[in-house]
Amino acid sequence: MIHISVADGSLTIPFHVRPRASVTKIVGEMDGAVKIRLAAPPVEGAANLELIRFVSKLLGISRSKVEIASGITARRKILRVTGISFERCASEFQKLGLC
């Protein structure tokens, strides 16, 4: 189960990323985090930008509402998301079978 938490009007969502995939897609859950493959290399922030782009599109919010709170250079990242309710976010992840 994904551990989405709410603090100060924003959501924090853990991700476990694997860059250099052929296509960007969520592949499951790993240790309470969303496991995702990214179609971008971990060079000059390309994978981080791809993660932000994909999550903002998935949740239907602008990219400016998604930021990496921790793990800029790590595979394990925490995203801070604003402008969306916990219920709506959980609903989107439930559609993928993650919550």
Tell me what you see in this structure.
This protein is α+β, with helices and mostly antiparallel strands and 99 residues long. It has one domain: 2-Layer Sandwich (Conserved Hypothetical Protein Mth637, Chain: A), CATH 3.30.1200. The protein is 24% helix and 34% strand. The chain is built from 2 helices and 6 strands, in the order E-E-E-E-H-E-E-H. Strands 1, 2, 3, 4, 5 and 6 form a 6-stranded mixed β-sheet that branches. A hairpin with a 2-residue loop joins strand 1 and strand 2. The longest helix is centred in the middle third of the chain and has 14 residues. The termini are close together. The mean pLDDT is 95.
CATH architecture: 2-Layer Sandwich
Based on DSSP secondary structure assignment, what is the total number of beta strands? 6
What pattern of helices and strands is seen along the backbone? EEEEHEEH
- Number of separate domains: 1
Mean pLDDT, nearest integer? 95
Q: What fraction of residues sit in β-strands? A: 25-35%
Fold-level CATH name: Conserved Hypothetical Protein Mth637, Chain: A
Backbone shape? globular
CATH superfamily label: YggU-like
The oligomeric state of the chains shown is single chain
Helix proportion: 10-25%
The N- to C-terminal Cα distance equals 5 Å
